[in-house]
Amino acid sequence: MSDATAAPSGDTSFFGHPRGLAILFLTEMWERFSYYGMRGLLILYLTQHFLFSDERSALMYGAYTALVYVMTLIGGSLADKYLGQRKAVTFGAILLVMGHFGMAFEGEGSRQDITFENQTVELQSEGRGDRQKLYVDYQGAKQLIKFDAANMLLVVDDKGTPKDEADDVVLTTIADGAYEVSEAVRDPLYVNILYLSLALIIAGVGYLKANISTIVGALYKLEDPRRDSGFTLFYMGINLGSFLSSIFCGFLGIVYGWKYGFGLAGFGMLAGLLVFIWGQKYLDGHAEPPDPEKLKQRVLGPINVEMASYLAGLGIIAVSMLFVMNAHLIPDGFVLMLGIGVFIFLISYTVVKLRGDERSRMFAAIYFVLAQIPFWALFEQAGSSLNLFTDRLVDKTILGWSVPAPVFQSLNAGFIFIFAPIIAWMWIALAKKNREPSTPVKFAFGVFGVGLGFLALVGGIKASGSGLTAVYFIFLIYWIHTMAELMLSPVGLSAVTKLAPARVVGMAMGSWFLYSGLSNYLAGVIARGTGAETIGGQLTNVAAAKATYATVYTNVALVAMAIGVGMLIISPIIKWLMRLDTLKGDPSHALAGEAELGQPGAGGIHPPQKT
Predict the structure, then answer these.
(1) pLDDT for 320-373, tens place per residue?
(2) Rounded to an integer, what distance in angstroms lies between the CA atom of residue 367 and that of residue 572?
(3) How wide is the angle at C-alpha 68 spanned by C-alphas 62 and 69, nearest 5°?
(4) Given CB 3.0 to 4.6 Å as the disulfide criterion, which of 40, 364, 413, 485 pairs with 406?
């Protein structure tokens, strides 16, 4: 192996790759284990344990996932200029451990009273997910309450056999409007622990996420042919962590208790931190501060540059906590104006500062930055509205076992394991015949596909009539969405980094992550539209909830599919703007000389840029 293609250390001990990749693989696997394990439980935790409304829970979830993206800009910048990736990742991992373990402090939950028949009694909740049951003290005994198809509240004596409804005796029936439910009373201590924990996780991901990927790239020289396969292995770590956590954290959290699911996520992150600390010696010095002496310079009194970089994390935590706890007060217009403002800046910069092919390619990069918005806004329903839908309105019984709703979020990672190699092979086969779709065409297929997935689910909702939706429609929507993801995400960030001139590639990548964050906030707005009336975290009117889901999902599906068709129509124009024929040999691009973006042998099948 020549020096031009060798890894910096010549290390090939991890499946032909540097040993440092194994450390990063395991660190990222455990970090994603903690993140996706917590994410799968979060929306159910907010609605059932803290009794937030569906609408507020969706906005909190959207603000949280949006800030996870946005704060990577700050964490990445601090690492590039001052800390270096090793210190930034270590600090981020520590914050994540604190945040995930903080989520395990659930407290006693929230209190809600119900008034009927001239008496006010406390709602008592037992179980989680679709295993949740609500009880009240009635006629001197603890009795089960239910809601029937006509939105009537039933007080039921379950004869001590809550799993067997055949011997249930209805003690009283209360018509809709004849009962009243109080506002939820939440323990301020544990609500603030929730907000602080989410803010710690946001800051931790901000310091860790972008920087650990940077270290992966630093292990290889630019010409190293193993570079793309190294990122592919790293990406498998992401999906392995996601797959395992959705199953184990989701199962523990629903079946045994929230604290067990969140606690397991915390132990996963602790394992990732310990692995990274132990394995830092295998990174060959490629994650160190750019100027170690600068870190020692005083900024204010005893505070030096390094300490100030860590203290910036406190600012991120404070801002994130403020936004998450007040997500329902943030006007949608604020987010819209922010997106428009950044768009105007990007266009103005391109027109004023760039010329010729650089300007043309930058316009194409801006297109891809914006084209991701409809995809992620719908795809990210998985953790919010789709998670609630699965929990409440799907028959999840498989082989006699009622599968907890969060477990189904493992389907995306599982399908990627199965179909990513097939898609990669398909692009190779089509490329040999000069029939591989261009990057803009793949993007169009991805956006169209995410809409198609929701349309398929709506078909299942309507086919179920008044009953629960068949579980195979959940398998179907996750499969369609995974195939759409493999069309769009693997080439998205790759296209932006290759098309933007080298001197502004950081700005282009920052824009990508910013609009990814705005997409996640938009996902929360869409999920808010699916909100249903609940008492104690349970639906009061199943028929109305199904109708709302069908309406909202149909509307967003048709909009996304229409956008996808429009993107397909203009794809030749975008391909022309990309100026691929002149990219080869352009000295302003570090990755010049590659052929079609996203092709094997021309940058490879790049890993989807998940968070």
Answers:
(1) 999 999 998 888 888 889 999 999 999 999 999 999 999 999 999 999 999 999
(2) 13
(3) 100
(4) 40
